[in-house]
Design a protein that fits this description.
The complex is a heterodimer of chains A (325) and B (337). Chain A contains nine helices and twelve strands. By secondary structure, chain A is an alpha/beta fold. In chain A, the strands form two sheets. In chain A, strands 6-7-8-3-9-10-12-11 form an eight-stranded mixed β-sheet, with helices on both faces. In chain A, strands 2-1-4-5 form a four-stranded antiparallel β-sheet. In chain A, β1 and β2 form a beta hairpin. In chain A, α3 crosses α4. Chain A starts with 5 loop residues before the first strand and ends in an 8-residue tail after the last strand. With 337 residues, chain B is α/β, with parallel strands linked by helices. Chain B is built from eleven helices and twelve strands. In chain B, strands 6-7-8-3-9-10-12-11 form an eight-stranded mixed β-sheet, sandwiched between helices. A four-stranded antiparallel β-sheet of chain B has the order 2-1-4-5, covered by helices on one side. In chain B, α4 crosses α5, α4 runs parallel beside α7 and α7 packs parallel to α8. The chains are: A alpha/beta (325), B alpha/beta (337). Chains A and B meet through α6, α7, α8 and α9 of A and α7, α8, α9, α10 and α11 of B.
Chain lengths: 325, 337
């Protein structure tokens, strides 16, 4: 087996809640709590979950855009959490991010060329202006953006074009690993498919590994090799994309899949409607965090916190009950 | 056949731009809506679906002066029929909220942050029904209970920021339902919500509809949601209805190449794995620079030069109740046949 590209162990991001005239820490918002996973070279791992599940925090912590509270993040064997400024710059030559909102993640005063060239400038790649321009042009070509748009500014581009520019910027330093944080969520339906296909092509062409964050499990199913389902900062289930979508083993995954509306009026599935909202991460339920909305919950679920355990080839779930779903 | 609750004919909305140009946001839209029926208006951003909803509410003049033409005749609670497009602003106020109500996409920005939820529900009721504030508060409490809000008494005294997205959307629905409207216009009511909460809200709307028999015009970009809630659907592209019909017909035998391509490009849970999605090339045209002829022809793989770019196709019936706007629909075989 090839060594993992990324090894995340017991990642935790707790935000302190301070109160009082002389602020004291009175509690923690447990945005990410004890998350571990591996990412193989040229693999796409999907992080699926609802808003507030901590999936974006995981993605940003891995790149150290947010400092993790504890845990280790090993990228090619090197612990990212201990890198100094120089080490971080070297790390980010190999690890990049594509943000969700292509409207706020591009500087409105820069041209497309400047936006895509910025990582090259920061990393000292292709210092010669002509070489740099050639490189920018070839990057834009690989995301199907015409050279005529080189001097345009973000406001002159459509949402789909902006997202492509964001992807070209991430590709500029020729990274091995990209965190794609909801890259198609803000795009129109007819543009979503274009960007999903583009990401699949780029994965093959540039031999990329992706951490693909999305709330839309139907989108993820087309992109991801493996899927991790996150709820209240914890991984509920992780396994091959096909197994997760066709034979989910965790009650939350089952409910999440059944909630996706199916555009086929003939297929009326039995829908599991979860009651209530996701609880506050400042005060998560005891035991299993999902038990308050779980239709299979038993008394023991409130006492014991379930650990991830094997339920099939490369497939793990954190649930006390083996008999469901 | 029952007489329709709402009859819309040749509705068009035109905005003037600062440069002196005009933008036809909605053109030539006609449909009707029966009591208890749900019609889904589906399209991408810029297709004019929200503008159409706002025009029906008489709200197009709020942000930009838009000129609305055409007719939208509604059966009122008192039994008369009224063309809403001919009403003065003042007369429209009596209808808005009372006969026709609307819920919006973002529940946070449509609720007033400085008033309690109870105040906002009571406002609509006291305004339209002239009942005392204590009676209004009692009916608000009952309504919140019906909508499945846990601890409705506490919710009445909460401010919008204290509620989750799903709860806020329930409050919006409560405000919309407070005067028992006969028509509800729901503009992307679940788009800002998580899928599990979306499922809750869709169930809730269906349940409320069964109980009250109101008609719903459901505006969405999500074909999955259309299949869940609606009996009939209208697909809009660049301000025009390009296909309309019963949901089953439009989904299983779409005749307009745009509808077909859009349905094929959807990521779905019941399709093959790791397959390439058949994407639609290009992008949605800007409503201020529409291509000549059929607005979809530059992206359409069935487009024929000289025919599709020449004149605007009319909306033709390809079978009972199934309308399509494409000059080539009869030449293009129905999918699956």
């Amino acid at each position: 087996m090839t060594p993992s590209l990324l090894k995340v162990r017991n990642l935790r991001k707790w935000y302190e809640i301070r109160r009082g005239v002389f602020p004291r820490v009175v509690g923690h918002v447990k945005a990410v709590d004890d998350v571990s996973f591996d990412l193989q070279p040229n693999e796409v791992l999907g992080l699926a979950g609802e808003s507030g599940s901590g999936k974006t925090t995981i993605g940003r912590s891995v790149l150290r855009l947010i400092e993790a509270s504890s845990g280790s993040i090993a990228f090619k064997g090197e612990d990212v959490t201990r890198l100094d400024a120089n080490g971080l710059r070297r790390f980010r030559r190999q690890a990049q991010i594509v943000f969700q909102d292509p409207y706020s993640s591009l500087d409105p005063r820069m041209t497309v060329e400047q936006i895509v060239a910025e990582p090259l400038r920061v990393q000292g790649i292709a210092p010669d202006p002509q070489a740099r321009r050639r490189r920018v042009e070839s990057l834009l070509e690989s995301v199907s953006i015409s050279r005529q748009l080189l001097m345009r500014r973000p406001r002159e581009l459509s949402g789909g074009q902006r997202q492509r520019v964001g992807i070209a910027r991430a590709l500029a330093v020729d990274p091995e690993f990209i965190v794609a944080d909801e890259p198609v969520a803000s795009l129109d339906v007819s543009i979503q498919a274009q960007v999903i296909n583009l990401l699949q092509d780029l994965k093959a062409q540039f031999h990329l590994s992706l951490l693909f964050i999305s709330h839309d499990i139907a989108v993820m199913r087309h992109v991801a090799d493996r899927i991790a389902v996150v709820y209240l900062g914890k991984i509920m289930e992780i396994g091959p994309a096909r197994a997760i979508c066709e034979a989910p083993r965790h009650p939350y995954t089952e409910a999440l899949l059944s909630a996706v509306p199916n555009p086929d009026p003939r297929q009326r599935r039995q829908r599991i409607v979860l009651q209530g909202d996701i609880p506050s991460p400042a005060n998560p339920p005891s035991g299993c965090v999902f038990r308050t909305r779980c239709r299979y919950a038993i008394a023991e679920c409130a006492q014991t916190e379930p650990q991830l355990q094997s339920t099939g080839p490369d497939h793990y779930k954190a649930c006390l009950r083996d008999d469901v779903p | 056949m029952k007489s329709p609750l709402l009859e819309v004919s040749d509705l068009a909305v035109r905005f003037s731009t600062r440069g002196g140009g005009v933008v036809d946001a909605v053109s030539d839209v006609s449909f009707d809506l029966a009591p208890g029926e749900t019609v889904a208006l589906v399209g991408e951003s810029g297709s004019g679906k929200s503008t159409l909803g706002l025009a029906l509410m008489g709200l197009t003049g709020v942000t930009r002066p838009g000129s609305v033409s055409g007719a939208a005749t509604l059966s009122l609670k008192n039994g008369t029929r009224q063309d809403m497009m001919k009403l003065s602003d003042r007369a429209m106020q009596a209808i808005r909220g009372n006969e026709v109500a609307m819920i919006f996409q973002e529940p946070m920005s449509s609720l007033n942050p400085v008033h309690t939820v109870g105040w906002q529900i009571c406002e609509a009721v006291t305004c339209h029904q002239g009942i005392s504030s204590s009676a209004a508060a009692a009916s608000a409490l009952e309504l919140l209970g019906k909508l499945g809000i846990p601890d409705p008494g506490r919710c009445l005294h909460a401010y919008p920021h204290q509620l989750s997205g799903g709860m806020r959307q329930r409050v919006m629905i409560a405000i919309a339902l407070s005067c028992q409207p006969s028509l509800l216009i729901a503009d992307e009511p679940t788009t800002a919500l998580d899928v599990t909460v979306q499922a809750q809200i869709l169930e809730l709307l269906k349940h409320v509809q069964e109980e009250t028999g109101m008609a719903i015009l459901f505006i969405t970009h999500n074909f999955g949601v259309v299949a869940e809630v609606a009996q009939r659907t209208m697909v809009m592209y660049a301000g025009r209805v390009v296909e309309a019909g019963p949901v089953g017909d439009v989904f299983h035998a779409p005749r307009m190449p745009y509808t077909r391509a859009l349905l094929e490009s959807l990521p779905r849970l019941d399709r093959g794995f790791a397959t390439r999605l058949p994407a639609i090339p290009g992008q949605v045209p800007s409503p201020s620079a529409l291509p000549p002829g059929c607005a979809f022809h530059p992206r359409c793989r069935h487009a024929v030069p000289g025919r599709c770019d020449d004149r605007l196709p009319t909306l033709e019936a390809c079978s009972n109740d199934h309308l399509v706007r494409c000059v080539r629909w009869s030449e293009l075989a129905a999918p699956g046949s």
